[in-house]
Amino acid sequence: MKNKKLIILSLLCFTLFTLIGCSSGTKSTSSNVAPTVTTPKPVKVKLTAKLIFNKFKETESKNITKTVMVDATHDTSGLFGRPNQYTEKIEWNDGRIKDSQVTSSIEVFKTEADATARKTYLEGIIKTMPMLMQYIEQKNNILLRVEGGLIPTQSEEYIKVFKSL
After folding, report:
1. pLDDT, tens digit, for every residue of 85-129?
2. How far lies 164's CA from each of 12, 47, 55, 69, 160, in Å?
3. Fewest CB atoms within 10 A around its CB: which of 62, 70, 90, 141?
4. Could you give the CA distance from residue 62 to residue 45 in angstroms, rounded to a whole number?
5. Around Cβ 113, how many Cβ atoms within 10 Å?
6. For the chain, what is the largest distance between any 2 Cα atoms, rounded to a whole number of angstroms?
7. Is the pTM of this model over 0.85?
8. Which residues are registered as beta bridge partners of 11?
9. Separation between Cα atoms, residue 16 and residue 19, nearest integer Å
10. What pLDDT shows up at residue 98?
11. What residues of the chain score a pLDDT lower than 50?
């Protein structure tokens, strides 16, 4: 009789532990830690000549004339795609200047060092040939060249947009 009671008690305990271990009850988590909220990082947009030019058109469309999308076959300078030279270029004239010998342009280079070298080269030419005057701004690997025939406040309209990007 004792053995039967012991066997029944053992089976009852085994069954009870099995049911408790297999139960799918809810877990109670009482933590004072607030849930972590991650804010997405802003997407960094790669600046291209076309993107910058489109921004100019939003503010200066009435002044932009004679636009040229430069490529290897249509590059009067012959520098497009060559080592250490620009890989994208857009040229345009500003209608506020009549008979300008210089166009405005956006030049995109592979590296910032290439853009800096080009800027230094152009500034050297401008010092010796003032009739080729341009306002030149650099942002990383991109050069903005604005016609020197514009008065400073007019050129600043392009430069302000360029710096905001």
Report:
1. 999 999 999 999 987 777 899 999 999 999 999 999 999 999 999
2. 76, 12, 10, 23, 6
3. 62
4. 27
5. 11
6. 119
7. no
8. none
9. 5
10. 84
11. 16
